[in-house]
Amino acid sequence: MSGVPRSEKPAGRFRRMLDRLSTSQEDLESEELREDTETAGCTRIGDCHDRQIVTVTGTLRTVTQRPRAGVPALEAELFDGTAALDVVWLGRRSITGIEPGRRLIASGRISMSRGRRVLFNPKYELRPLGRE
């Protein structure tokens, strides 16, 4: 055996194929989302801090309508492969195109609520469906 650990050796085509076959679907999707974040030039959600103005991208995992203080609110969970972020549109019951599985880019100021990152009433851009 050589003295160089496997992680430092250049990965050949066969090794990469074996790694992809042995990796779970969730891990593969997370890796794809992280690459998409870098390609789009956005901030990774895992790197976002309270009161920071950011532009993030990811896939909507869930979309629910939940009133906040008696006001209708549309809430969605955005995931980019590093962490999740709650996106909340106050005063909205629904928004065309905002649905689970949809990719989007959102911009605004991060706030923390009950230990979770939240983006209220962000500027957003829906990403095309399917592969780009």
What does this structure look like?
The chain has 132 residues and is of the alpha+beta class. It is 20% helix and 36% strand. The chain has 2 helices and 6 strands. It has a 5-stranded mixed beta barrel. A hairpin with a 7-residue loop joins β1 and β2 (73-79). The longest helix is centred in the first third of the chain and has 16 residues, at 25-40. It is elongated. The chain starts with 12 loop residues before the first helix and ends in a 6-residue tail after the last strand.
**End-to-end distance:** 43 Å
Global mean pLDDT: 85
What is the tally of helical segments? 2
What is the number of E strands?
6
Please state the CA-atom Rg, rounded to the nearest Å.
Answer: 18 Å
> Could you say which structural class the secondary elements and strand pairing correspond to?
alpha+beta
Quaternary organization: single chain
| Strand arrangement in the largest pleated sheet | 1-2-3-5-4
Return residue spans where pLDDT drops below 50 for at least 5 consecutive residues: 1-5
Taken in chain order, the helices and strands follow as HHEEEEEE
Q: Which overall shape is indicated by the principal axes computed on the Cα atoms?
A: elongated
% residues in beta strands: 35-45%
- Percent helix, as a range, is 10-25%
Largest sheet: 5 strands, mixed, barrel
Reconstruct the topology from this structure.
Elements: H1 13-22, H2 25-40, E1 53-65, E2 73-79, E3 84-90, E4 103-113, E5 116-120, E6 123-126
Parallel strand pairs: 3-5
Antiparallel strand pairs: 1-2, 1-4, 2-3, 4-5, 4-6
